[in-house]
Write a structure and sequence with these properties.
The protein is mainly alpha-helical and 146 residues long. The chain contains 5 helices and no strands. It has one domain: Four Helix Bundle (Hemerythrin (Met), subunit A) (Up-down Bundle), CATH 1.20.120.520. It has helices spanning 4-27, 31-64, 70-93, 97-130, 134-142. The radius of gyration is 16 Å and the shape is elongated. The two termini are 23 Å apart.
Length: 146
């Protein structure tokens, strides 16, 4: 059986790889490919957040009754990262690599801390709390955006 921890951690790795490639391209001044890769990264992150915010977090909250716990912290961090995405998109539009790379460094730190909290705590708690319902939640998350 696949679980939340494995599935969502793998999605983190995919997003991380695309993020790193966008950063490399922009650092090298390859704006055409860098812009395209940033868009792929941004879209992947929004999809990841949407799966969590519309399916995983509500399922966890319903099952545990914890609405002001870890899911609330993760939502707040999603808001923070979305702000950085918007600033990064502006720097891409202006082709300002210095600004982009500075924001990228900040985002990397935020993402690493965020992913660690999800992978080490929230996803494991969700797997345990959801029990037999994990497969249903995974199916509903897979259907997001299709």
């Amino acid at each position: 059986m696949t679980d939340i921890t494995t599935t969502m951690s793998a999605d983190h790795r995919i997003c991380d790889e695309v993020f790193a490639r966008a950063e490399e391209l922009i650092a090298d001044g390859n704006w055409d490919e860098g812009t395209a890769k940033f868009k792929v990264f941004h879209d992947a992150m929004e999809h990841h957040f949407t799966m969590e915010e519309t399916v995983l977090f509500p399922a966890f909250e319903t099952r545990t009754g914890m609405t002001m716990g870890p899911t609330e912290v993760m939502r707040g961090e999603h808001v923070q990262m979305r702000g950085l995405f918007a600033e990064m998109a502006e720097s891409v539009e202006k082709q300002d690599s210095e600004q982009y790379l500075g924001l990228s460094e900040t985002l990397l730190m935020v993402m690493q801390q965020h992913n660690s909290k999800e992978e080490q705590m929230l996803y494991r708690m969700a797997d345990q709390a959801l029990g037999q319902g994990v497969e249903d939640v995974l199916e509903r998350m897979a259907a997001v955006g299709q």
